[in-house]
Design a protein that fits this description.
about 200 residues, alpha/beta, Cobalt-precorrin-4 Transmethylase, domain 1, Methyltransferase, Cobalt-precorrin-4 Transmethylase, Domain 2, five-stranded parallel sheet, about 30% helix, about 25% strand
Length: about 200
């Protein structure tokens, strides 16, 4: 059985009991280094989730043929710009069990009281960001990456005349060094740790 378990923002206290139970029963645990580090007592086999996704898919097929219980740890929610989407496309939902988790966007909105009912959810991972659309939207939540982080977003918004909006930036959400900022674009600094951004565009 191949299970994809949402880690939430990365704090074990924010994982669901079902996800923790799946890990406890697994033969193999797959995840990023910081996720695996939280399961230091895991007695089975571990594999680091890296950029070689084709290699991972082939390896997971072998594990399924051997009928091993494999849990893939996914950041946040597996199907919100996560590894879950790729695994569903490859294996089909019939061969998977997906245990949802709290997305970083959900967590940030909960910590800051931002209403999610009218929010546009997007990501900069592996895509060209439509900054014009960001500038037009009233409320946007974006999962960022190294190429397009808070500073690049702020500069693009200022260039489009939306310097009066707010950027709510959540760094290392759910972890001991969590930091949350509410800034105007001109106040955004160059570097932030792993983060998600909510843009509140005042009109």
């Amino acid at each position: 059985m191949l299970t994809i378990a949402g880690m939430g923002p990365g704090n074990l206290a924010l994982m669901t009991p079902q996800a923790l139970e799946a890990v406890a029963q697994a033969d193999v645990l797959v995840g990023g280094k910081r996720h695996l580090a939280q399961f230091a007592d895991f007695c089975g086999e571990v594999r680091v989730l890296d950029a070689d996704i084709p290699g991972l898919l082939a390896w997971l097929e072998q594990q399924q043929q051997q009928q091993r219980r494999v849990v893939v740890l996914a950041s946040g929610d597996p199907l919100f710009y996560g590894i879950g989407t790729r695994l569903v496309a490859h294996f089909g939902i019939g061969q998977l069990r997906i245990i949802p988790g709290i997305s970083a966007v959900q967590y940030l909105c909960a910590r800051t009281g931002i209403d999610m009912n009218d929010i546009w959810l997007t990501s900069s991972h592996g895509r060209v960001v439509d900054f014009d659309a960001l500038a037009r939207a009233r409320k946007v939540a974006m999962v960022t990456d190294a190429k397009c982080g808070p500073k690049a977003i702020a500069e693009a918004l200022m260039a489009r005349g939306t310097e009066k909006c707010w950027l709510v930036i959540g760094e290392n959400l759910g972890l001991d060094d969590e930091r949350i900022h509410r800034l105007r674009p001109a106040e955004v600094q160059a570097e932030y740790a792993m983060n998600v951004v909510v843009i509140l565009n005042e009109r």
